């Protein structure tokens, strides 16, 4: 401390460091997919990250669900969703392209999701879901610092090779390009047995350098987002309606004139109903709702066909639901709590039943590619039953909560250290940094984020020459902070090293 020997005014310059570290937000995912529109304030926002907080706001900017029309095919087996009549199975043919983002956003908000970012890669007018468009949208996210999760529900609507290529890019985006978010991945055709879907995923995804920043979930979910009574026969395309007409005619047998007229209505162009010119009342076409109501009372085949369509629309990959659960867990319990043993809202059951033995196969992979299971339990509902990253063999980064907690710590401390740029790289700054970060970690320890009976057991912070820095660091104007945090039990320290160039903002 300087000695003042003469009267006068003395000026002492203090390092302009903040007095505390503020935890960055962790409950914010980014979604990428196709939308009905992408207009905000009269301007196109296609390809741009847009922050929103509710489904109502999403609909205002991006519109509603796509208008779907399924095809029908007669098959000898019942492998695909459909219905049976007279010993024959009639399976649904999904429309192409098959957009999933809107329903996924419904699932996200129904599971506790709040603020998020959405990037529209294109509109429903596109003739295909293109990997290049989704990749371009992903690249636009590189400059957006806030999202802590990455979700692309449309990935599974691509062909399998393109889906896996995009998911590989998602992992690289999180692990290499940004290092500040985690990718939540769906299993391609995750409604199939694990011997098909999970095996293909594990064989083709490369997690050697990126797996600690990603988590995968299986199986898909049978949701209740769309009620079957909201659908009519217009959910089928023209060839499918013609086939359905013949099947119902066979089911009903002898037909009176009124029933024949109803059957004829099935193959009328339903799109012209609301635009027809005025005609005498007896020439008015029946509305789809009127025809639908009549057939629901006449034909079990019709009811089964409509229910099959609702079931197919409600079959969704789980990533959006998990993003909502991550967000809710962060907000109510803390990012350090595992997003597992949590019931999924808006779900009837998993698309596949996973046994205890299959659970072990999913958890324990020789290459560490753990896949988290979603299981149904009597009296508890459909639960998330796993919390591992794709580095299941790595004792340090095995768990999602550990990775996300460390991302939060790094980002929070980096943000606080921005104030040290251009400050003298001296002992005063080093002591201030140690105190500031120590106070931050002590607060987290008191909340239960860190393990240990005392703060000394839970963490340490080191900053200074001979401790975390060398003379070479000092010569290069680098401030280096080393901290260890016990975020797992047993309380093994995970060491983080944070560097800040003092002469660069």
Automatic annotation (TrEMBL):
<feature type="domain" description="Tail sheath protein subtilisin-like">
    <location>
        <begin position="303"/>
        <end position="390"/>
    </location>
</feature>
<feature type="domain" description="Tail sheath protein C-terminal">
    <location>
        <begin position="394"/>
        <end position="499"/>
    </location>
</feature>
<dbReference type="InterPro" id="IPR035089">
    <property type="entry name" value="Phage_sheath_subtilisin"/>
</dbReference>
<dbReference type="Pfam" id="PF17482">
    <property type="entry name" value="Phage_sheath_1C"/>
</dbReference>
<feature type="compositionally biased region" description="Basic residues">
    <location>
        <begin position="275"/>
        <end position="285"/>
    </location>
</feature>
<dbReference type="InterPro" id="IPR020287">
    <property type="entry name" value="Tail_sheath_C"/>
</dbReference>
<dbReference type="InterPro" id="IPR052042">
    <property type="entry name" value="Tail_sheath_structural"/>
</dbReference>
<dbReference type="Pfam" id="PF04984">
    <property type="entry name" value="Phage_sheath_1"/>
</dbReference>
<protein>
    <recommendedName>
        <fullName>Phage tail sheath family protein</fullName>
    </recommendedName>
</protein>
<feature type="region of interest" description="Disordered">
    <location>
        <begin position="269"/>
        <end position="290"/>
    </location>
</feature>
<comment type="similarity">
    <text>Belongs to the myoviridae tail sheath protein family.</text>
</comment>
